[in-house]
Amino acid sequence: MTSTADHPHYADLRAELDGLTTEAFRPDLAEIDRRATLDIARTMNDEDATVPAAVARRLPEIAAAIDATAARMARGGRLVYAGAGTAGRLGVLDASECPPTFNTDPSEVLGLIAGGPSALVTAVEGAEDSKEFAAEDLTAIGLTERDTVVGVSASGRTPYAVGAVEHARARGALTIGLSCNAGSALAAAAEHGIEIVVGPELLTGSTRLKAGTAQKLVLNMLSTITMIRLGKTYGNLMVDVRASNDKLRARSRRIVALATGATDAEIETALAITDGEVKNAILTLLAGVDGPAAARLLAASDGHLRAALEAARAR
Prior knowledge:
Layout: H1 8-18, H2 37-48, H3 51-56, H4 59-74, E1 79-83, H5 85-102, E2 109-113, H6 131-140, E3 148-153, H7 159-170, E4 174-179, H8 185-189, E5 192-195, H9 210-229, H10 246-260, H11 264-273, H12 278-287, H13 291-300, H14 305-314
Parallel strand pairs: 1-2, 1-3, 3-4, 4-5
Helix pairs in contact: 4-9, 5-9, 6-7, 10-12, 11-12, 12-13, 12-14, 13-14
């Protein structure tokens, strides 16, 4: 049997993991498997309840990263997530939900996962250990200085995530490093470091738990508030929603109704003359303009409905 002494690399890595908060062992939970199911569920729920407070402690850093991201995207840049395993999957998830929610082009918010699309459902051995793979993936999408790259890694040491940030920063892109350990290499490599320290996991080293929840909360903020800053909402209404199925078509009509108070007949007419574009339909109803005028006003206002309304009323 081969010992770790025969593999100095693994011994070094083990020592590195021993120093990470996310990998710490909880002696108080050493016999959790002997507890009643309800007791385990209560313990897990109590652990999860600590995550929002950990996120709250980093809100200034999160807000600064969002403002910088929105400024880049307003100039035509993209938002790109890069991570391995759970972190990578969360980035792909967040990116994939932006087109139906905010009517973004699929190329505007992207999720890169170490090992490629197959890694979404199956572990790809060794993929997360390569900074070079990250550089290759970013090169393949034509990274520019207008883009924002968010490296996501619970440990904050994953080579793929760190490599993505290092490659992006060297090319002038905005970089954000999201990790769940203090003093992480990922945060240090990024222009905006965000470290959400949630503490040891219920299952030692299982960072799909509290760390994954923390990452999801922060990614929700990054994409959602960036889109708010870019005028993709009107108040708390998703006025850029893409009506690609019956549920979203019904939601579109409800959004127009909430924004305008118009009758069903008026809403149907407004959507018909604006090719189903919710934002345009609202503008025709609130500003009393026709479909082409609504489109022109929104184009001149960079898609911001409030600004378009003010422009229409000032005419």
